[in-house]
Amino acid sequence: MRLTPSIVNEKVDQAVALLEEFEIDAWLTFVRETTEAGDPVLPLILGQNLTWQSALIVTRSGDRIAIVGKYEDDAVKSTGAWNEVVPYVKGIRQPLLETLTRLAPQTIAVNYSLDDVKSDGLTHGMFLLLNEHLAETVYGGRLVPADRIIRALRSRKTPSELERIRKAIAVTQQIFGEVSEFAQPGRTEMEIAEFMRGRAAGCGAQTAWDANQCPIVTTGPDSMIGHGYPSAELSIHPGRIFHLDFGVMLDDYCADLQRAWYVPAEGETAPPDDVQRAFDTVVKAIHSAADALKPGVQGWRIDEIARTVVTDAGYPEYQHATGHHVGRAAHDGGGVLGPKWERYGRTPFYKIEPGNVLTLELGIENTGGRGYIGLEEMVLVTDTGCEFISTPQTILPMLEY
Amino acid sequence: MRLTPSIVNEKVDQAVALLEEFEIDAWLTFVRETTEAGDPVLPLILGQNLTWQSALIVTRSGDRIAIVGKYEDDAVKSTGAWNEVVPYVKGIRQPLLETLTRLAPQTIAVNYSLDDVKSDGLTHGMFLLLNEHLAETVYGGRLVPADRIIRALRSRKTPSELERIRKAIAVTQQIFGEVSEFAQPGRTEMEIAEFMRGRAAGCGAQTAWDANQCPIVTTGPDSMIGHGYPSAELSIHPGRIFHLDFGVMLDDYCADLQRAWYVPAEGETAPPDDVQRAFDTVVKAIHSAADALKPGVQGWRIDEIARTVVTDAGYPEYQHATGHHVGRAAHDGGGVLGPKWERYGRTPFYKIEPGNVLTLELGIENTGGRGYIGLEEMVLVTDTGCEFISTPQTILPMLEY
Fold first, then answer.
1. Dihedral of the CA atoms B138, B38, A342, A357 (nearest 10)?
2. Which residues, numbered 126 to 185 in chain A, qualify as contacts with chain B under a Cβ-Cβ cut-off of 8 Å?
3. What is the pLDDT of residues A131-153, one digit of tens each?
4. Which domains are delineated in chain A?
C-alpha cells in the first residue's frame, strides 16, 4: 500500500536525525522482491515494493539515495523522500560500490537484530550477498546492526502517525459499541467475527492482524484463547463471559484492544462475585502499570508491577507480556513490557521513550468456569508519564439482550 | 490467510518426498512474528501466522513437528498438517534441543538462499539466534541451505495448485474482456486501474501484486513502463497503444498476464505497419520460447531464444527476464527464464521441471512513438514440452469505441 508522501518524508527525516543521535554514518536497507519477502521497515521509509536487489541509503549528513532496478526508479522518485535515485539494469554491485566509495562511511548500519523482529528485515541470504558485493572493499568490515535506529524510528511516533493511530482506535471502539448491540446468546463466535470484519470493511478499514484471527472471540471456558480462531460451534451463553480482542488498521495504522462483557443468566442482575473480582483485578493491574509508565523505565519493570497485582490477588500468572508497541503493525517494534523470559530476548530491557504508543493488556483464564476475562488498553508515553488514548474499560457491563 | 487444509497437507507430503529425493534428514523453518516478517514458504506448509519463535520440522522419515508458543498450538493443530505440536511458554531453546536430540539429523536444511528470494525466509537475526540456540550442540555445524527443497516445493505444482491457477487465469482473462469494453479515448490510466480492481473485487479476487501497481496501465510513450503507477493525467489516446499488465489472486493463487490493443485514430482501419510489426515480433518471440521450453533445459536458454527474435528483428533488447514462475505469488520462486546477468544470480541456470508454471513475457518500448507493445502468457511444463494455460494473444485488436 502506498502512503501519502508526508509520512514517508517525516520518517526519513527522522532517520537522518537518528543517525546523528547514534553517531552512525550511513544506514543501508538492502532488499529484493519485497512483495512477499518485505523488510518491515520498508513501509515507513518508502511505502511501496521493490523487485530487484535495491539499496536505500540514508546518511548522517542527509543524503537519501535509492539504488533500484530500472523500471522502478520513477515510482521511487514519486515518493519525494529519496533525492537521488540511481537505476540499474544488469546488477547492483557497481552502482552500490560507487555510491559507498563516494560517501565513505565509517559505519554502515544494516537491518538485523536478534531480539527485535521489526529491525530484522535483512534475510540471511541477502546478508551473505551483501558481503559478496563488498568482499573486495573496506566496507564489508564496517557493517553494524541498525536495530537501534529502526527501533527508535518505529517507536517514536510522529504527529501524523499519532493522528492515524487515534483514528484507528476511534473506529475500533465504535465497532465494539456496535457488536455489543449485535451480540446475544446463541450467536456463534464466527458470526460475531464476521459481523465485526464487515463493520471494519464498512468503515474503510482492514483488520489490524490476520483477518482469520481478528477479532479473537471467546465465549466461555471451551474457546481457544490467545491466538486462536473463532469457532462456528461455540456461541455466546448466559452465565459466561464474552470477550473480544480486536483492532482495525486504518490508513496503515493500527489499534489493538480487548473488551469484556458478562452475559447474565436468567435472574442475574450483576456479574457473579468471582467474575467481578477477576475483572477488578485486571483493571487494577492495567492502571497500576499505567501509573508507573514513563520515559526511562525498562519494560520489564512495568510488566512486573501488573503481574504482581494479578499474582498477589491469588490468580495464576498470565503467560504473555503486559504490553507491546502499536503503530504500523499491531505488534510494532521497539521492545515489550514483558518479563525477562528467554523468548523476549533483550526486548524487556529497552527503555520507554516519549512518543511511544503501547498496549497494556492482561487477563485471567477460566474465571469460575465462566470463561476468559481480559482487557487491553492503549497509552501514549508523554515526557513525564503516559496518557490513555483508548477509553479505558473500568466497568464490566452486563450484555443486554 | 488460512488455506483449506488440503493444499497445506499436499505440500507437506511433497516436502517429505523431497527430503528423500535430496537426501536431507530434516528441514527446519524457523520464524517469529510472521504477520510482518513472514517466511515466504510459510503459506505453503502452514497457512497461518506465528507470533513467537517457532520451529516447523519435517523429516525424511515423515515426522511433522511444530514447536510453537502456547496459545498458538491449537491453531497449528487445526491445520491437520503437523502431527506433533509442542507448545512452550518461556523459551523455545529447550524443546527445540530436545526434539533435535531425539531426531538426531545429520543434516538440517534452513531457509536461506543467495539467489532465490522465496527460499530466503530466514532473517539474519534469526540465523544468529538459531546458532545461539545450537551453540553447545553438534547441530550448529549441520545446517545446510534449504533452497533446493523450497524451490522444488514451490515450483512443482500439485493438481490442486494447478486448478487454482487456472481459475485465476480465467478470472484475469474475463476482466481483460470487460476492460476492453470499458476502455475508450479519454479514460485515464487511473480510471482503467480502478475499474479493473473493482472487477477483481467483484469476482472475490485480490490483485496478484501490490494493488497500487496492479494493473500496470500504459497509454502511450509518456506512461511509466515496468513497475510504475497508473497516472491520473494520462489517458487512452487515438493513435497510441493501450497496454495492461495484470493478474488476480484467487484462493491464494495468481495469474500474471499482459494484453495490448491499438487505439485507432480517425480513419484508421488497421494498426500502423510499425506497430503491427512490433506486435508480431513479440508474438513470435513468445511462441519460439514456448516451442523450446521443456524439462531439463536451463532458463537462460529459453530467454536467449526469445531475446534473439527481438534483437534479430532490429529492436533493442528488453531489460528484464523472459519468464518467471507463478503460483502463490505472481513472481513465484524456482528460477527465472532470464539472461545471465548479475542481478539474477544463479537462478537462470536452474533447470525446468514438469509441473512448473511459467510466464513468457516481453515487450518493445515506444514503438513509433505510439507506446509500449508487450505481451505475457502463462504455460505449464509437461513431461515433454509445455502447453499454454492462458489463451495466447496472437492478434492485435483495434480498440472499439
1. 160
2. 126-129, 132
3. 999 999 999 999 999 999 999 99
4. 5-154 (3.40.350.10), 156-388 (3.90.230.10)
